Amino acid sequence: MRTGVAQNVPISVQVTGEVAPGIADYAERRVRSALRYAHEPVLHARVRVQRHGDPAVARPITAQANLDVNGRIVRVQVAGSVATEALDLLRDRLQHRLEHIARRRKRGAVVEPHEWRHGGEPAHRPSYFPRPPDQCEVVRHKSFTLARCDVDEAVFEMEVMDYDFHLFTELGSEQDSVLYRTPDGYRLAQVDPHPAELAEHFTPVTVSERPPPVLTTVEAAERLGTLGLPFLFYLDGERGRSAVLYRRYDGHYGLITPAE
């Protein structure tokens, strides 16, 4: 994307909490400077800068950017000790993400091992608010038709959206599946694991041979709080479908279920 064109992209900035004066303008400048690395036209950008009110949070500033890149949403989120640091990290991570998307589009479906890893990225993810488990509630429930795709496309979607996991229907096995990261690479969990039935893919991934536990939402919340996990993939015993209960950065829980 040409620099001149990037200057015309509409960018909306929302600032919440006590931050230094002029942060909205700084946020717009930093995000706009990364737009020239987009492989397709950026139609709109939305930036949020939020300061957490709890003084115990080590990196209280969360910065998030959502870009509409010719109809595809690209999302990046980071945390910093001060707003300018968070926005500098946001800009660098956004450039890195856009460059990788451009390279992958040129190359096609092939995803090389550790292609998406960027030195230092995990350390800049926002911290979870340390809310006691007995105070945690499911405050958001999203239900949608799961995308049918192979592992390569699932990796691409998860990384473009900067998610910790991605719930989808694996193309070859037709199984509800969740893709996530481990220190050793990508891992896949399925409702009824059949690794041999996965559609052809190029991204190295290990497959859990254990089916998810059958739980109610209440039981899943109790297990998530007890084990301190970032998310829990389980089979909803009441609906007979998969579900993911995840920990939000405000310490509460969110629930994702497939649409019927």
UniProtKB/TrEMBL annotation:
Residue spans crossing the bilayer: none
**Where are the annotated coiled coils located?**
none
Start and end of every Sigma 54 modulation/S30EA ribosomal protein C-terminal domain?
Answer: 136-185, 211-255
Q: Which SUPFAM superfamilies match?
A: Ribosome binding protein Y (YfiA homologue)
Keyword Membrane set for record = no
Gene Ontology process terms (BP): negative regulation of translational elongation
| Keyword tags | Translation regulation
Which InterPro entries does the record cross-reference, listed alphabetically?
A: HPF/YfiA_ribosome-assoc (IPR050574), RHF-like (IPR036567), RHF/RaiA (IPR003489), Ribosom_S30AE_C (IPR032528), Ribosom_S30AE_C_sf (IPR038416)
| Signal sequence extent | none
Q: Which GO terms describe its cellular component?
A: cytosolic small ribosomal subunit
- Extract the GO molecular function terms from the UniProt entry: ribosomal small subunit binding
Keyword Transcription in annotation:
no
Q: What is this protein called?
A: HPF/RaiA family ribosome-associated protein
Source organism (scientific name)? Saccharopolyspora elongata
